[in-house]
Amino acid sequence: MSNLKQAKNFDYTLEKIFPDAKDFLPINGTDYVELYVGNAKQAAHFYKTAFGFQSLAYAGLETGIKDRTSYVLAQDKIRLVLTTPMHPDSPIAEHIKKHGDGVKVIALWVDNAAKAWQETTGRGAKSFMKPTVEKDEFGQVVRSGIHTYGDTVHVFIERKDYQGIFLPGFQTWKSDYNPNPVGLRYIDHMVGNVGWGEMNIWAEFYHKTMGFANLITFDDKDISTQYTALMSKVMTNGNGRVKFPINEPAKGLKKSQIEEYLDFYGGAGCQHIAVATNNIIETVSAMRNRGVEFLFVPGSYYDTVGDRVGEIDENMEILKSLGIMVDRDDEGYLLQIFTKPVEDRPTMFFEIIQRKGAQSFGKGNFKALFESIEAEQARRGTL
Known about the structure:
With 383 residues, this protein is an alpha+beta fold. It contains 11 helices and 17 strands. The radius of gyration is 21 Å and the shape is globular.
């Protein structure tokens, strides 16, 4: 059964059987994000140089791993794993052939990986990995996993009995080349793009199998321009540490960014990773100096943004020079900026976000943001 079919075929009476649904899967946060890439060694150099990640751990031929090579990079609470296949007929190679470089695993830190697997598969999730105990001289880790949209999976990580650098099979990665961090702190949210009419299906999947709640919904009136539109539901776990917006295309005059992503990625997948900083001006300035390319925001955006968001701590002229956008909600305001795609395919990109009280996602910036994306699509000839 396909992932989409298994999402559609849930027994919706489970909510009556499990009245404590919101509490059945406590998640402590994001443990790591694993990307399947064509050349992990070179990708690691890029993320160290451009994004300020630090060398953490390595697994490959030298550590007894024969089918893949993985480099683990860290910056504050963020762990990024870059994995390359060693053979052309491996599932990892097939994933890269279809999707290009992209997110395969969104790993979630839990207290009990076996229970997490039992609770989710018992509610209809398709198993990716049965609970497995992995050991070395530093202790043991328990991992399990389920499938979600497209070829993306969630792996549940229980590491309370482990003192090693990352996971069994990994060793410390020592490098003489370690550019300074740029101030990235943790993953704020991760966005999934799904096909036509699938947003509600996958939002329901997260609600039924993982106990997530719908934090906010954006329709095509909220997220649209003259030419394109999309819809989105933001799903969040109980403590708010894990947030997954789910996007689907909406009808428009031209091809939307979601349709472009689905075409080039070869189906549903993780569109972007939003990472938080305490000082977005310093972070973005450092990343620009290291060659990271950001979306261009029209200067006219800043003619009215001050009237819309009111008084802020930052200098608006500096924000304008860097292309950083601002939005306000009832709790405060946020600052955000988006990179261009970080691969040759116009697929995955990053968002840099600084929250100053705001808990929203920049609704007031949607029009300017999507006009910027449309300008990039026009240059690519895919609008």
